[in-house]
Target: Core-binding (CB) domain-containing protein
Amino acid sequence: MLNEEVSIKLLGKFTLEFPSLEIDIKKQLNIKKIIDEVLYDYEITTKCKELTTSDILERAKLYIACKNLEGLSKKTLKNYSLFLNKLDMFFNKPCSTISTMDLRMFLSVYGKDKQASTVNGYITYLKCFFGWLQNEEYIIKNPAAKLAFTKVPKVILQGYQADNLERLRASCITPKEKVFLS
Model:
């Protein structure tokens, strides 16, 4: 897990040192792949003995501020904030180290006993948040991109039966109401 963090930090340093890399995402991904291959046989530990901390809340505040500038409603922003707080409580690691499997585990825990449409809403939140992180270059790869929406059962509404329609027509008073039901 630290290998991934070191890999991302090294790529960030290379990008700062060689600004031409900022433009070419393919080169960045190629360099990251090379770093990952070299680090594969090594187990990296940190000198620092602090606990790993999450940066999700910090990134979430920036995300919500940007969405506020885009004109999203206060209610939508509040829902985003509540959801991202759940995400922060679930993970105790930086956004850059969260994998697709981590997000699937999160969805399995928070999506338990929820309807498929609710889980799909969670997936949309994750895709938007991690897509924004990638666009803003906080992360290289979007772990939510591979998440698939759950199948939502179709609800077939029953039409009015003839006798109910006749009762509705009989209850019409004004000509406008009668035209509406004719």
